[in-house]
Amino acid sequence: MILPIVGYGDPVLRKKGADISKDDPKLKEIVENMFDTMYNAYGVGLAAPQVGLSLRLFVVDTTPFSEDEDLSKDEQEQLNGFKKAFINPTIVKEEGDEWAFNEGCLSIPDVREDVFRKEKITIEYYDEDFNKHTDVYDGLVARVIQHEYDHIEGILFTDKISSLKKRLIKKKLQNIMEGKVNADYKMKFVAKKGR
C-alpha cells in the first residue's frame, strides 16, 4: 500500500525513532508498504518517520543510481540490485574523507543541496527476518544509508548545510510546511492537518 509521505515541518521528522520488537506483527507489512511508497515516489531510500512512524527502520534500493554513466563499472555493480530493510540499526563507525554529494529528500521536495559525509560506514542492523548483521559500506550506498539513518535520529539533510544556504531555502521550506508544493506523490503536510 502506498502511504503519504510526511512533509518538512512535521514533528515526527524530529523524533528519535523507537526500537522495533522482533514480535511486531505488522513489521513485514510496514516494510512492504515503505518499499511501495518509495518506488511510487522514485526514491532510493525511505525512513519510517517519513511515513509518520517514529520507528528505527528504513529501506533502501540504490538500483536507480547504477544507471549513472559517470560511475565506474564497479560502482554501478555495487549499486545495482542493492535492496535492503534496516531494522534497529546503529552506525558503529564512520571513516575516510568527507565528500560532497547533492542530496534531496522525499519529505523536502524541490530542495537539493551538497552535503558532506564520510565515505565509509560500519553498521549493525537486523533484516526483515530479524537476523543480525554487521556490514561495511562505502560510496553512494554508504551515503544513502547515512541519509536514511539520520531520519531515524531526527536529523534532516538540511541540518547539515551552511547557515547561508539555510537562509536561501527558508521560503521553500515554509512553502512545504504549508503544503504549497507540487510533488508527484501523495504527501501529508503539517499546516494542512485538521483542515
TrEMBL record:
<dbReference type="Pfam" id="PF01327">
    <property type="entry name" value="Pep_deformylase"/>
</dbReference>
<feature type="active site">
    <location>
        <position position="148"/>
    </location>
</feature>
<dbReference type="InterPro" id="IPR036821">
    <property type="entry name" value="Peptide_deformylase_sf"/>
</dbReference>
<keyword id="KW-0648">Protein biosynthesis</keyword>
<comment type="similarity">
    <text>Belongs to the polypeptide deformylase family.</text>
</comment>
<feature type="binding site">
    <location>
        <position position="105"/>
    </location>
    <ligand>
        <name>Fe cation</name>
    </ligand>
</feature>
<keyword id="KW-0408">Iron</keyword>
<dbReference type="InterPro" id="IPR023635">
    <property type="entry name" value="Peptide_deformylase"/>
</dbReference>
<keyword id="KW-0378">Hydrolase</keyword>
<feature type="binding site">
    <location>
        <position position="151"/>
    </location>
    <ligand>
        <name>Fe cation</name>
    </ligand>
</feature>
<keyword id="KW-0479">Metal-binding</keyword>
<protein>
    <recommendedName>
        <fullName>Peptide deformylase</fullName>
        <ecNumber>3.5.1.88</ecNumber>
    </recommendedName>
</protein>
<feature type="binding site">
    <location>
        <position position="147"/>
    </location>
    <ligand>
        <name>Fe cation</name>
    </ligand>
</feature>
<comment type="function">
    <text>Removes the formyl group from the N-terminal Met of newly synthesized proteins. Requires at least a dipeptide for an efficient rate of reaction. N-terminal L-methionine is a prerequisite for activity but the enzyme has broad specificity at other positions.</text>
</comment>
